[in-house]
Each structure stands twice: as structure tokens, then as C-alpha cells.
Amino acid sequence: MTPAINSASKAKISYHIHEYTHDPAAESYGLEAAEKLGLDPKKVFKTLVVSLDGKSLAVAILPVETQLSMKLIAKAAGAKKAAMADKNDVMRSSGYVLGGVSPLGQKKPLPTFLHNSAEAQPTIFVSAGRRGLEIELAPLDLLQLTRGRFAELVL
After folding, report:
1. Burial, 120: exposed, middle or buried (Cβ in 10 Å; 0-12, 13-18, 19+)?
2. Model confidence over 15-47: pLDDT tens digits?
3. What are the beta bridge partners of residue 130?
4. 12 half-sphere exposure, CB direction, 13 A CA radius
5. pLDDT digits over 65-75, tens only?
6. Residue whose C-alpha is closest to residue 96's, from 146, 130, 134, 119
């Protein structure tokens, strides 16, 4: 069990765990998950941590085949500027290794934004806290557990 799975279990939400053998040579963790699990990449979401105005961190959750707009995440978070967070800050804040960062069960709760395309999906897949492990859950349950909100994050 990972902190992400424990968080979902404790909240008594409906979820399913999907496991696959991670290939260390994979170029994209999220696209690898979609491919190995036979899923539409629009349903598989990656978790990115950004630095806001160089002062604080926030979480962006978006489809694996899209690219995060720094302007849009900054706007959603009420910041002037956003940049990808330093990998050591990400691991320290979340408690997860890169490629296995889950929006659930992070050591330090951060402002969280879920791409609004998730609203159209009955369930989405996000990392369950380690490479090769995905958790499938309803987008509204994810927002409830992370205290997040929908936002436009992709141009």
C-alpha cells in the first residue's frame, strides 16, 4: 500500500488499482502507463509540481499527452509566474519519487488543479504512488481528496 492508496481507502471512495511492469527505459511514465494498460491517453493523467513565484509549490494534473501551460497554471493559482519545481523539492514535498508522484497522499498538501477535460470522464487514472502503479477514480473524488479544483491548464 502507498500513501495514495491509503488516502483513497481511508476516505472510503470507489477506486481500482492497476499495475504494470515499468520499463526504466520508458521516455514518458504517463504514456507508458496508457500503453501498457491499454487505455486512451486522454484518461491517463500526469501529476506535475510547479513553483509559484519562486515561493510556493502547487500541483497540476493533466492528460499525459498534453503539455502544461505555465501561464495558465500561474493564473489558476493566482500567481504571477510558474516554473517546473526542482526535482528535490518535489520529492521532499510529496514523499514520492519522480515518475511515481501521486496527487493523493502527499506529505505536504499543496494547492491542486485538475485539467478541466477530466470533467467529461467518469473515471481517470493517476499515479498511485510508484512507477508501474495507477489508481482509477472519479475526478470529483480526486478533487475532494486533494481539495483541488478544475482549471484550464493546457493551451
Report:
1. exposed
2. 999 999 999 998 889 999 999 999 999 999 999
3. 133
4. 0
5. 999 999 999 99
6. 130
